[in-house]
Amino acid sequence: MPMDKLPAILIIGKTRVFGRSACEVLFVIHGNVGIDDFLSRLMESVEVYSTHIRDEIQEENERAARDQDIAYQETLQIDMAKEEAKQQKERALAAERHRLESEKAEQEAQKEKLRKMAEDSLPKEPDSSITTGVTDIRVRDPNGGIVHRKFFVTDQLQDLLNFVASKGYLISEYKVISSWPRRDLTTLDSKSTLEQLKLYPQEMVTVEER
């Protein structure tokens, strides 16, 4: 700097360069100026620096707003992905529940069909006035309840098993156990008569789950 312009006043301020703070000479006021010119240049330097600071603040605010928007969008995408995954899981669970309910309903319908077929196939029950050639069969269900029915001794074991099935205890799921001797009647020849199996003049049988 030429000697005739000394002394000089350097206006130094902080600026941001590539995101980092740095000190920089913002304005130079030479010492060979009058007081009015000096004050004018000083005010000008203050205005320039103030404008510079406002620009930096605005730029920083805009950068922060952009960063916030990016972070918001990323969070939004993550939340949307989580919600979609949750909905997919709920749809899968609902579909599985529907499948299981449909299967259960189909199984129940099939059981009811078999129960009705067993009921329709039962022979006529002997009249109470008939006392010979008749056996009284009592059936204890898995819950402890007892039902009874009369059969002719010439009726087949299958008729007794059908009676049990007509009460909802299908032979595919339940065993029918005689009291004495203890036998699983479902394993015997279903065409045998109740007389041949000695299930007369009365008998108690128990229904058990397989």
Automatic annotation (TrEMBL):
Stretches the record annotates as Disordered: 87-131
A cellular component term, taken from the record's GO annotations: nucleus
Domain UBX: 130-207
Biological processes annotated in GO: ERAD pathway
Amino acid composition bias (Basic and acidic residues), ranges on this chain: 87-127
UniProt-recorded Gene Ontology molecular function terms: ubiquitin binding
Highest taxon of the lineage: Eukaryota
Alphabetical list of Pfam families matching this protein: UBX
Signal peptide: none
Record InterPro entries: FAF1-like_UBX, Ubiquitin-like_domsf, UBX_dom, UBX_domain-protein
Name of the protein this chain belongs to: UBX domain-containing protein
